[in-house]
Design a protein that fits this description.
- The chain is α/β, with parallel strands linked by helices.
- The chain folds into two domains: 7-64; 86-280, Uncharacterised protein PF01937, DUF89, domain 3 (Rossmann fold, 3-Layer(aba) Sandwich), CATH 3.40.50.
- The chain has helices spanning 7-21, 26-41, 49-64, 71-82, 85-94, 98-109, 122-129, 138-147, 161-173, 193-198, 224-231, 241-247, 263-269, and strands spanning 133-136, 150-154, 177-182, 206-209, 235-239, 254-259, 276-280.
- Strand 2 (150-154), helix 9 (161-173) and strand 3 form a beta-alpha-beta unit.
- It is globular.
Length: 283
Amino acid sequence: MRTYSDCIPCILRATLGGARLAGAPDEEAWAVVAEGARITADWDRTLPPILLGAEIGRLLRTRVGQTDPYLGEKRAANTAALGHYARWKEEVARAPDPLFHALRLAAAGNALDLGFYAGVDPHHDVDCALQGFARSDYGAFRDALDRSREVLFLADNAGEIVLDRILIEELVARGKNVTVAVRGAPTLNDVTKDDAESVGLNAIAEIITTGSDVPGVSLAACSTSFRTRFRNTGLVLSKGMGNFEGLSQEPAPLFFLFQAKCQPVAREAGVAVGSLALLRGRG
């Protein structure tokens, strides 16, 4: 997916939010956002917006002197979401099709995005986002799942990783070996290995990293070992908008699961803003 003009204010707003979380004084926050704006002026718009976000994110972390400005917020989001784990788990168990409901819950959990919203409330935000899929390739997903014993799950944000855990548990219950890929270094409120382990994912799945601090999977920016795993896995389930931005044109056995929170992604996915989507990729 290319970078749209709509992406620029979104990225700069997230940068300002990160500066404030880091406790940067207004003059420093101004300087970071102003430099970010200068970077965007020369940006190649044919590239995915996650690469622009990564470049400005590195600038932010260097200027404020913190490797993970969102650390406290991520921990709070995970703790809050874990408080609802039992309720969500029971909902899935009672559903006529537990796998389908787990997919819907995980997609609704994509609303827990501190890089996009000023704050998150797992109970309210997930319940408000939970709806039918505006587009769903569920049948194709089930067929692909039946054919593959290995699943590579590309994680997205803290907080929502708790709902992802419920989905991954459903996949494991169906005899699948699941590997969860997280960011290789802190970026926005995206999940790192420590975040994933804090919600117990390491007890049910192998956790690897992309080897990259990009807030989404862009294969060119990932490690060789991750690219090898990506290419050799029979089914990849890609969670969140950032991963969609980086992989939407990739020919691979991919399915995308997310809430379309902005107009550019909604347009690319062919859904309305706010809708949930389970989309088959180009592979």
